[in-house]
Design goal:
Its EC number is 1.2.7.4. 49% of the residues lie in helices and 10% in strands. It is of the alpha/beta class. It is globular. The model has no long low-confidence stretch (mean pLDDT 97). It binds iron/sulfur cluster (SF4) (2 copies).
C-alpha cells in the first residue's frame, strides 16, 4: 500500500497542493489518517451480525478461532462477502426498478418529461421478453415491457427464472446455472434471502453461503441488464460521439453544473432544460451560459448519450468542488462522498440531493419525482445560477487538463460499426479476426477507483499492456472515466499503443464507420450499470461460435475495485464463466476455504474464477495467459 503515490492524472496532481494550502482535507488525507486500517476487517474475519459481537478470529491461530456463537472464519468471511453482494444487487436493481417504473409512467402518460426515444430497441426488448407486438402501439408495448420487467421483482414461483437473466445469456449457461440452483426468480426475494440466511444462527456452511452469493450476483446482473436496456428505450441507445474529459472541461465564465451519481432520470431532464435557461445564466454574468459536466456514472450516462463532458471519476469527485468553479453538484444515488457536504461550506458550490433515499447533511434537497421532473430540473438549474452569483473568483483554480474522448459504444453501436464491413453478418468480421488471431481476445475493464492504489494507474497500465498484445479493450464506469480523462479513448492512443494486428482491425472498422481513422483504443460502453452491454456482445459471439461463455477468450478486470456493487459485478462475471481480475486484495483472505473457492474451485463449477494480482503488469500478463489458454482450448 503506497500512501504517497504520484497521480497519473495531472489535474489531481496540480490541484492537490492548492487544497493543502487552503487547509482542506481530501479522501487521500483521510486515507492516511485512517492508517493502519483494521487487519481483521481487511481479512474479512470480523463479525458484527449480532450484538453479542463484534467477534473476530485470530488469523495467527493463537487466539479465538470461533465467534461467541461458534461461527468460524470461513462462515464469517462467506457471510460478510455475500452480504456485500446483496447490497450491490440492491443498489443496481433498485436503480433498475426506478427506470422500469418510469417506463410504466411514460406508457400510462403520467411522466410528461419523458418519451420513448428508441422505439426500435423497445420492440427488440419486447421480442426478447417473449411479448407479441403485433397490432399494438408504442405505449401498449412499453406498458407490457414495464410490467413483464417488474415481474422479475415480484415472481413467487421459484422454478421460473427471471426473464432478464434467462433471455440474455447462452442457453447452455442458463441451464448450467439453473441446475446449480443459482438462477434468480425474483431479484428482491434473492436479496432478502441473503439477508435472511446470514442472520445470526442461520446458514453456517461457507460453500452453501457462497452459492447463495452467486445467486445474489445473478440478481444483480438481472437488475443491471434491465436498467441499461430500459434506459436506452427512454433516453436513446448510445452511439459514438466525440467529447472531452477531465477537470479542464469546467469553464470559468459559465454556470457549471456537475451531475453526479448513477441514475440518468433527472440528469437527462436537466440537460433538456438547461438550454432554455441559458439566458438567465448570462444575465447573472456567466458569459458562456450553462455548462453541464458529469462526475462518476451519471457522468458516464450523459456522456455516452449526449456527449456531455466528464469532469472526473469517483475518487477525485472532491477535486471538482475544489476547483472553486462548480456552482452546483447535483447528486442522485450511489458513490457520492458525504465529504461533499463539508467541502461546500468552504466554497460557494451548492450541493443538491435529489432522491428521497440519498440525503447528505449540508445539502439542499430538491425532491425528484418522474411526474414533476421538468419543474425539479428547472429548480436545480435556478439554484446553480443563484450559487454562481456567490462565486469567489479568487478561489477558482481549474487545472487546464482535458482530453478528447470518443465514447458511446453500446453493443448496438459496435454491431452497427461492424455492419459497415459486412451488412448481412456484422459479427463475422469480429469473429474472423478473433479466430485468425488479429484480435487475441477481449478484456472488459470495470469497477471503481480506490485510495489503495494511485488513482487510475492500474487501469492505464493493464490496458496499454493488453493492447500491445492485440487484446480488444472495453470499459465502463469509473474505469471508463479513467481512460477518458487520460486520453485512451482516442484514435491517437490506438496508433500509439495497439499491437499491429489490433490496430489494423480497429482502423478497418473505424474507416468503414466513417471515423476517418481507427476506433479508439478503449471502447466506452457506459456507466458501471452498463457492464451488461459487454455481455450482449460476448453472448452474441458465443452463440455464433456455438460455445458457452466460459469458452471465449474474454476476461474482465476490476483493477481498482472498491464498492459492494463491484463485488456483485465481479461475482456475476465469474458466474457467467469470465475469469475476472481484482487489483485489490478482497476482504476474504481470512478464510483459506473461501479464497480457494473464489480463485480456484469456481472454475470447475462455472468456468469463471477470480485472479487476484495487485501488480498491474503482472496482472496484464496473467490475463493474457488466460486468453492464450482459452484460444488453445478452442483450437484457434
Ligand atoms: S468491526 Fe471489524 S473492521 Fe470494524 S473495527 Fe471491529 S474488527 Fe475492525
Ligand atoms: S453472529 Fe456469532 S460471530 Fe457474529 S457477532 Fe454474533 S456471536 Fe459473534
Amino acid at each position: 500500500m503506497n500512501k504517497d503515490y504520484k497521480f497519473v492524472d495531472q489535474a489531481i496532481e496540480e490541484l492537490l497542493p492548492k487544497v493543502k494550502e487552503a487547509g482542506l482535507d481530501t479522501v487521500w488525507d483521510r486515507f492516511k489518517s485512517m492508517q493502519p486500517q483494521c487487519g481483521f476487517g481487511e481479512l474479512g474475519i470480523c463479525c458484527r451480525i449480532c450484538w453479542k459481537g463484534p467477534c473476530r478470529i485470530d488469523p495467527f491461530g493463537n487466539g479465538s478461532q470461533r465467534g461467541i456463537c461458534g461461527a468460524d472464519a470461513h462462515t464469517i468471511v462467506a457471510r460478510n462477502l455475500i452480504r456485500g453482494i446483496a447490497a450491490g444487487a440492491a443498489a443496481h436493481s433498485d436503480h433498475g426498478r426506478h427506470i422500469a417504473l418510469t417506463l410504466l409512467e411514460v406508457a400510462e402518460g403520467h411522466a410528461p418529461a419523458y418519451c420513448i426515444k428508441d422505439e426500435k430497441k423497445l420492440m427488440s426488448v419486447a421480442a426478447r421478453l417473449g411479448l407479441s407486438t403485433e397490432g399494438k402501439n408504442v405505449r401498449q408495448v412499453a406498458k407490457e415491457v414495464a410490467l413483464a420487467t417488474l415481474e422479475d421483482f415480484s415472481r413467487q414461483n421459484s422454478s421460473i427464472p427471471c426473464s432478464w437473466a434467462r433471455q440474455t445469456m447462452t442457453a447452455e449457461r442458463a441451464e448450467k446455472l439453473t441446475a446449480l440452483g443459482v438462477m434468480p426468480h425474483n431479484i428482491d426475494a434473492v436479496v432478502a434471502g441473503i439477508m435472511n440466511r446470514t442472520h445470526v444462527g442461520c446458514d453456517a456452511d461457507p460453500v452453501n453461503l457462497l452459492l447463495g452469493g452467486l445467486k445474489g450476483a445473478l440478481a444483480d446482473y438481472t437488475g443491471m441488464y434491465l436498467s441499461t436496456e430500459l434506459s436506452d428505450v427512454i433516453f436513446g441507445t448510445p452511439e459514438p460521439v466525440i467529447t472531452t474529459a477531465n477537470l479542464g472541461v469546467l469553464k470559468e465564465d459559465a454556470v457549471n453544473i456537475a451531475v453526479h451519481g448513477h441514475n440518468p432520470l433527472l440528469s437527462e431532464i436537466i440537460c433538456d432544460v438547461a438550454g432554455s435557461m441559458d439566458e438567465e445564466a448570462r444575465q447573472a454574468g456567466a458569459k458562456e451560459g450553462i455548462n453541464i459536466v458529469g462526475v462518476c456514472c451519471t457522468g458516464n450516462e450523459v456522456m455516452a448519450r449526449r456527449g456531455i463532458p466528464l469532469a472526473t471519476n469517483y475518487l477525485s469527485q472532491e477535486m471538482a468542488v475544489l476547483t472553486g468553479a462548480v456552482d452546483a453538484m447535483v447528486v442522485d444515488v450511489q458513490c457520492i462522498m458525504p465529504s461533499l457536504g463539508v467541502l461546500q461550506e468552504c466554497y460557494h458550490t451548492q450541493l443538491i440531493t435529489t432522491m428521497a433515499t440519498n440525503k447528505i447533511p449540508g445539502a439542499v434537497h430538491v425532491e425528484f419525482t418522474e411526474k414533476t421532473a421538468l419543474e425539479d430540473a428547472r429548480r436545480v438549474v435556478e439554484l446553480a445560477i443563484e450559487a454562481y452569483k456567490r462565486r469567489d473568483k479568487n478561489k477558482i483554480n481549474i487545472p487546464q487538463y482535458k482530453e478528447t474522448a470518443i465514447v458511446g459504444f453500446s453493443a448496438e453501436a459496435v454491431f452497427a460499426a461492424l455492419s459497415k464491413l459486412n451488412k448481412e453478418d456484422p459479427l463475422k468480421p469480429l469473429l474472423d479476426n478473433i479466430v485468425n488471431g488479429n484480435i487475441q481476445g477481449v478484456a472488459l475493464f470495470a469497477g471503481c477507483s480506490t485510495t489503495r492504489v494511485a488513482q487510475d494507474h492500474n487501469f492505464v497500465t493493464i490496458a496499454r499492456e493488453l493492447a500491445r498484445h492485440n487484446v480488444l479493450l472495453l470499459a465502463t464506469g469509473c474505469g471508463a472515466g479513467a481512460f477518458a480523462k487520460l486520453g485512451l479513448m482516442t484514435q491517437e492512443a490506438t496508433e500509439a499503443y495497439a499491437g499491429d494486428s489490433l490496430k489494423a482491425v480497429l482502423t478497418a472498422v473505424g474507416e468503414a464507420a466513417g471515423l476517418n481513422g481507427p476506433l479508439p483504443l478503449v471502447l466506452h460502453m457506459g456507466s458501471c450499470v452498463d457492464n451488461t452491454r459487454a455481455v450482449t456482445v460476448a453472448t452474441a459471439l458465443a452463440n455464433k461460435l456455438g460455445v458457452d461463455l466460459d469458452k471465449l477468450p474474454v476476461v474482465a478486470s476490476a483493477p481498482e475495485a472498491m464498492s459492494e456493487k463491484a463485488v456483485a459485478i465481479g461475482t456475476w462475471a465469474v458466474t457467467l464463466g469470465i475469469p475476472t481480475h481484482l487489483g485489490i486484495i478482497p476482504q476474504v483472505t481470512g478464510s483459506s476455504l473461501v479464497t480457494e473457492v473464489l480463485t480456484d474451485k469456481l472454475k470447475d463449477l462455472v468456468g469463471g474464477y477470480f485472479i487476484v494480482e495487485t501488480d498491474p503488469l503482472r496482472a496484464a500478463g496473467k490475463l493474457y495467459e488466460v486468453i492464450r489458454e482459452r484460444r488453445k482450448a478452442l483450437g484457434i
